[in-house]
Amino acid sequence: MAEQQVQPLHNEKHANTKVQNGINVDFLKSQHLMPVVAHEFARVATEFPMAFVKNTETGQFQAVAMFGLEPGENLFIENGKWTAGFAPLAATRYPFGLVKHPEEDQFGIVIDEASSLVGEEQGNALFKDGEETDYLKARKEALVNFIEFSRVTEAFTQYLADKELLVQQTLTVDIKGEKKDINGIYLVDERKLNELSDEAHLELRKRGYLAPIFAFLTSTHQVARLARLKAQRQADA
């Protein structure tokens, strides 16, 4: 995999730079988990199972989409192509990123110059006569939204953790008659959710948390899809 060359975006340096739409397949092919934000849970649930993973150092939980059943495995990349009908926002941000300036609450935009999506021949221009193009403005807005969505998702996840609605579970999948356990993930505890008081339910509704919770619960049925994809891949091999 090519090394990244992440550089601050500059209207002179990148005056002729163009960016093609697409995702970083090189990076994604070895990712079995990808962070997702609550705003996209409903869409994610139509393609991927979701889970929460716990950072052992901070104790914080993060919502993720599962692309594979074990580390380093992405079942949605075949022959160098992304095969799912949707990619989470964390994947579509590339080749751009935001970096926070240490002294102030400001973000700067960076670009991976080594990306195959970046060049001077094909794609969407970033600058015209030194000014940002509409394309770049839209990409910037999406990056800023992602930061905001991530903050909201952190608060949502923390709330679930505080209410003890996240429970560590082992998912068992059947791959061509062989049982495989997936450990170290947390799911929403449906039993505890159903036992919440009317008051607690109302609180969830007021915060807008019910929709992402139900989307999350629905998504776990997609684990069977991962098992099918894995069985297919093993058969092809």
Structural overview:
It holds the Pfam family SapC. This protein is an alpha+beta fold and 237 residues long. The chain has one domain (6-236). It has eight helices and 15 strands. The strands form six sheets. Strands 1-9-8 form a three-stranded antiparallel beta sheet, covered by helices on one side. A three-stranded antiparallel beta sheet has the order 10-2-11, with no helix packed on it. Strand 4 (50-54) and strand 5 form a beta hairpin. The longest helix is centred in the middle third of the chain and has 29 residues, at 134-162. It is globular. The mean pLDDT is 91.
Task: Please summarize what this structure is.
This protein is α+β, with helices and mostly antiparallel strands and 237 residues long. Helix content is 34%, strand content 27%. This is Multidrug transporter.
- The residue-averaged pLDDT reads 91
**Which structural class matches the secondary elements?**
alpha+beta
| Count of the separate structural domains | 1
Helix content: 25-40%
The tally of helices reads 8
What's the main sheet like? 3 strands, antiparallel
β-strand percent reads 25-35%
Radius of gyration: 20 Å
Low-confidence stretches: none
Query: In sequence order, what are the helices and strands, one letter per element?
Result: EEHEHEEEEHEEEEEEHEEHHHH
Rounded to the nearest angstrom, the distance between the terminal CA atoms is: 23 Å
Strand element count: 15
- The largest sheet has its strands arranged as 1-9-8
Question: What gross morphology would you assign?
Answer: globular
Protein name: Multidrug transporter
InterPro entries: SapC
Organism: Pseudoalteromonas aurantia
Pfam family, one: SapC
